[in-house]
Specification:
The chain is built from 9 helices and 14 strands. By secondary structure, it is of the alpha/beta class. It binds NADP nicotinamide-adenine-dinucleotide phosphate.
Length: about 325
């Protein structure tokens, strides 16, 4: 076994709990430190997940020379500031999605990571989940022919609590950046940057999008994509990729799939993956693989893809009139 990489976690909220639990499933990993705005909360998290050190400020963790890599799990609007803090202190960074709330900030983070020669990746975990990898592979192999149509939605009935981040504009609330990012990412992974984007949204009382619909058109490739997100409905989140020879369906919740169904030339194929944990271990394994090799970005989800994704999200936000 190689070196054990010392992880630090910044902002121990809901997702950080799942991430810390999945860290235990990966070799060559040590949960070394956790930092919260409250020392007491950091201590409770450290006890629960066996972290060696608890800090009452993010700065202390960023300055700890024993920390190799930091996972950032604060609300969207702080991702840029917290990533910058860690990168400038020479730490490798895995930052939750969206890595920043504008593409210009993503560009800045990329520059600093390059200058400091440290690893940086946006935690778009779906990319590394085995069944998503299978779906991507089937498409790349041309099993369903040429893709012509993509449909993907992500929705749930969110609790209307303006103190929490989902409806809170100050914390980067809204469905597009929270969950709509997945369908947009999905279409772009499969078909690249669209030629045309049409977006419309329902903006709620707090000024953030609660329902958002996006249509991508790829004129040269002849592809249409219909993508949506919502905090207002109790409905399944599914994806369909349709091609000239067949189609692939990913059932709810498609962004964390454990199975998929492909219909190729009229034959149905089922693929199922027995996943332990929550599914975050696969992105963690990708990070470890990169760190062991000395790669400063993931070849599977390189930074130019994050930049391209966020340029597209910026454009969608312009169309729906959502500014942070
Ligand atoms: N990949 C996924 O599947 C997934 C799933 C859910 C969320 N996420 C992403 O993870 C991020 C966090 O989401 P979450 O649901 O875990 O949020 P959360 O439960 O609200 O936790 C966020 C944490 O950020 C810290 N924080 C720092 N400044 C804050 C402020 N001004 N207001 C509130 N919290 C603040 C808090 O920790 P301390 O006070 O302890 O420092 C809080 O516990 C979001 O950007 C989201 O997009 C990803």
């Amino acid at each position: 076994m190689g070196k054990k990489w010392n992880w630090g976690i910044i902002a121990p909220g809901k997702i950080a709990e799942k991430f810390a639990s999945d860290l235990k499933l990966v070799d060559e990993v040590n949960l070394y430190a956790v930092a919260s705005r409250s020392l007491e909360k950091a201590q409770a998290f450290a006890n629960k997940f066996d972290a060696e050190i608890a800090y009452g400020s993010y700065e202390e963790l960023a300055k700890d020379t024993n920390v190799d890599i930091v996972y950032i799990a604060s609300p969207h609007t702080f991702h840029y500031e917290h990533s910058l803090l860690c990168l400038r202190n020479g730490k490798h960074v895995l930052c939750e999605k969206p890595m920043a709330i504008s593409s210009s900030k993503i560009k800045k983070l990329m520059e600093v990571a390059l200058e400091k020669k440290v690893f940086l990746m946006e935690a778009l975990w779906t990319k590394f989940i085995p069944s998503f990898r299978k779906c991507y592979e089937l498409v790349q192999e041309g099993q369903i022919g040429e893709i012509k149509y993509i449909q993907s939605n992500f929705c749930f009935m969110a609790e209307y609590d303006t103190n929490k981040r989902l409806f809170n504009k100050e914390l980067g609330g809204g469905s597009l950046l929270d969950i709509g990012i997945y369908p947009v990412f999905f279409a772009m992974e499969l078909a690249g940057k669209p030629d045309d984007i049409l977006a419309s949204a329902v903006i709620g009382k707090t000024g953030v999008d609660e329902n958002c619909n996006v249509v991508f058109t790829y004129k040269k490739k002849g592809i249409s994509a219909s993508l949506s997100s919502s905090f207002l409905v109790n409905a399944p989140s599914e994806a369909l990729i349709a091609g000239t020879k067949g189609h692939i369906r990913m059932y709810s919740k498609w962004h964390e799939p454990t199975s998929l169904e492909a219909v190729i030339d009229g034959q149905i194929h089922h693929y199922a993956f027995d996943e332990p944990g929550f599914g975050y271990q696969y992105e963690i394994e990708e990070v470890i693989k990169c760190l062991n090799r000395g790669d400063l970005q993931s070849a599977e989800f390189p930074l130019f893809k994050s930049l391209r994704l966020h340029e597209t999200l910026d454009y969608i936000r312009q169309q729906i009139g959502l500014e942070y």
